[in-house]
Automatic annotation (TrEMBL), chain A:
Stretches assigned to the ChsH2 C-terminal OB-fold domain: 54-123
SUPFAM superfamilies assigned to the protein according to its UniProt record, in alphabetical order: Nucleic acid-binding proteins
InterPro entries: ChsH2_C, ChsH2_Znr, NA-bd_OB-fold, Thioester_dehydratase-like
Name of the protein: Benzoylsuccinyl-CoA thiolase
Pfam families noted in UniProt: OB_ChsH2_C, zf-ChsH2
Domain (ChsH2 rubredoxin-like zinc ribbon): residue spans on this chain: 19-52
Organism: Mangrovimicrobium sediminis
Stored PANTHER family: BLR3430 PROTEIN
UniProtKB/TrEMBL annotation, chain B:
PANTHER family: ACETYL-COA C-ACETYLTRANSFERASE, NON-SPECIFIC LIPID-TRANSFER PROTEIN-LIKE 2
All copies of domain Beta-ketoacyl synthase-like N-terminal, residue ranges: 61-113
Coiled coil: none
GO molecular function: acetyl-CoA C-acyltransferase activity
Pfam assignment, any one: Thiolase_C_1
UniProt protein name: Lipid-transfer protein
Source species of the chain: Mangrovimicrobium sediminis
Residue ranges of domain Thiolase C-terminal in the record: 250-390
Length: 143, 393
């Protein structure tokens, strides 16, 4: 039996046409993208729009910077015991002109990474409790 | 129209983990500042407090809390909260009152008692709070500092040794500062052998949180003259601008930057001193000493560039040449900085002003920057708060 899966942040990502994407919004007037999604008012100081379209964000981007978490973060992070260090990637999306953070896929190390390298988004387990997997987005280098 | 105000007196409670009520620290710093100014508490017309969010209701109304502790005497009060820039906002409120002619002399004070262990967000499932989201995903404060540091390495060729050299410098500066919490010499090897927290940053690259308090007595120039302090240090500029959309750098606690699809991205840290320079009619070439927010060693180097002390990407040259050491061309953090203090949020921006005041008076003792005439502070905190203050003699 497959384990049940729940998203860490419902509505923040989805699989569309077989590929995982972050879900954002885009201002209908000025074209500014939002992630997390913004549906109330555009934050561009020259735009008063309150109309947005839901859009999947680019799956691929370039690495802006990266680090790792050697120490266990406090709650609401759900940690392994003992803590397993993981990488954190900041990825620049070209079309959206924004940088999005996320963990790197399991097994990835800082030594594998370099600013400017191409990466892509995947969905993976953030943590597992009581037979239930909590799913999040992670970044993986493009082979 | 007159734009400057005078700093008549400064006072601090030493930084540490004393575990006492924040009001105790604030009263001590206030009394020291009043004594230093030669001003009677009853003559203070405005008490401007920097709030603390960690000490309950008295902290939210810090201005009134300190005024009551010093003894209600009918002054007007204000409390400012602006994260790490709270002290500067409180100072700006006092300056506005003084320049509007509504008050001649004011007390500005900030104090904090920090909890033990990790600072963590409020409990519950709260996906609308960016601070909750980033902790849920495992992205702590040092991760942001490390992302900036790593980018410097890959883009500009900075090394972990460059970062460590900032710690070594600041530790040396703060060695004999009686208000500093950590007064210990560090070598490059000490930093390199401390635990890796967030690659490339190690424990000794990252600042702690502390208890502490800082206070200023500020007045109109006319009041200073009547007090025989015509040559007092002056506040020439206070910048507390917000960021300008769209953010160029991913800032704590956000999970993403703004999108620059419609508007060009702008750097917040660079905007803070730019406004201060403009307001003071001075430029980076006029600065003789700076106190900047070294939340991490590498972040101090980012500040060199945002303060326009060197072109972007060249901060490591300033570190390697010793230019930012006391005795160098442009000493940075002669107090020892956050490396020696640890952060006491509502007091920290005021502590920076205290240090520059001592420096410009030539009263900084063994850490004196020779011939200091103009100083600038810089700090940045959460949710679009930051400040830069220029002091001159």
């Amino acid at each position: 039996m497959s384990k049940s899966q729940v998203p860490v942040l419902p509505g923040w990502f989805a699989i569309e046409n077989g590929e995982p994407h972050l879900l954002g919004t885009r201002c209908r007037a000025c074209g500014t993208y939002y992630f997390p999604r913004q549906t109330l008012f555009c934050r561009n100081p020259d735009c008063e729009s309150e109309a947005f379209d839901e859009v999947p964000l680019s799956r691929r981007g370039t690495l802006w910077s990266y680090t790792n978490a050697m120490y266990q973060p406090p709650e609401p992070f759900v940690a392994e015991d003992p803590h397993v260090p993981y990488t954190i990637l900041a990825v620049e999306l070209e079309r959206e002109k924004m940088i999005v953070l996320g963990q790197g896929v399991a097994g990835l190390e800082c030594a594998d990474l370099r600013v400017g390298m191409p990466v892509q988004l995947v969905l993976d387990t953030l943590f597992e409790r009581d037979g239930q997997e909590t799913i999040t987005w992670k970044w993986a280098p493009l082979a | 129209m007159e734009k400057d105000i005078a700093v008549l007196g400064v006072g601090m409670h030493p930084w540490g983990k004393w575990g006492k009520n924040f009001v105790e620290y604030g009263v001590k710093a206030s009394r020291d500042a009043l004594r230093d100014a030669g001003v009677n508490w009853r003559d203070i017309g405005f008490v401007s407090g920097a709030a603390t969010m960690r000490c309950g209701y008295p902290g939210y109304v810090a201005g009134a809390t300190f005024a009551q502790a010093l003894g209600w005497q009918g002054a007007e009060v204000n409390t400012s909260y602006a994260a790490c820039a709270s002290g500067s906002q409180a100072l700006a409120a006092a300056r506005a009152k003084i320049l509007a002619g509504q008050c001649e002399v004011a007390l500005v004070v900030g104090a904090d008692t920090t909890p033990k262990g990790f600072l963590k967000p409020a409990p519950g499932e709260r996906p609308d709070d960016p601070d909750w989201v980033r902790f849920r995903l495992g992205i702590t404060n040092p991760a942001y500092f490390a992302l900036y540091a790593r980018r410097r390495m890959d883009l500009y060729g900075d090394t972990p040794e460059d970062f460590a050299a900032v710690k070594v410098k600041n530790a040396e500066h703060g060695l004999e500062n009686p208000n500093a919490r950590y007064r210990k010499r560090f070598s490059l090897e000490d930093v390199a052998s401390s635990a890796l927290v967030a690659d490339p940053l190690r424990l000794m690259d990252i600042c702690a949180t502390s208890d502490g308090a800082a206070a200023l007595v500020v007045s109109s120039l006319d009041y200073a003259r009547r007090l025989g302090q015509a040559d007092a240090v002056r506040v020439a500029a206070i910048s507390t601008v917000t960021p300008t959309f769209a953010s160029a750098v991913v800032e704590m606690p956000d999970i993403a930057t703004d999108s620059a699809a419609a508007v060009e991205a702008a750097r917040f840290r660079a905007a803070l001193p730019a406004k201060a320079y403009e307001e003071a009619g001075l430029g980076p070439e006029d600065i003789s000493v700076a106190e900047v927010y070294d939340l991490s060693t590498a972040l101090e180097m980012d500040w060199y560039e945002d303060l326009q002390f060197c072109p972007r990407g060249e901060a490591a040259n300033l570190v390697r040449s010793g230019a930012t050491c006391i005795g160098g061309r442009l000493p940075v953090n002669p107090s020892g900085g956050l490396a020696c203090f640890g952060e006491a949020v509502p007091a920290q921006a005021l502590a920076q002003v205290c240090e520059l005041t001592w420096q410009l008076r030539g009263a900084a003792g063994p850490r004196q920057v020779a011939g200091a005439r103009v100083g600038i502070t810089a700090n940045q905190g959460l949710f679009g708060h930051g400040s830069a203050v220029i002091l001159k003699r």
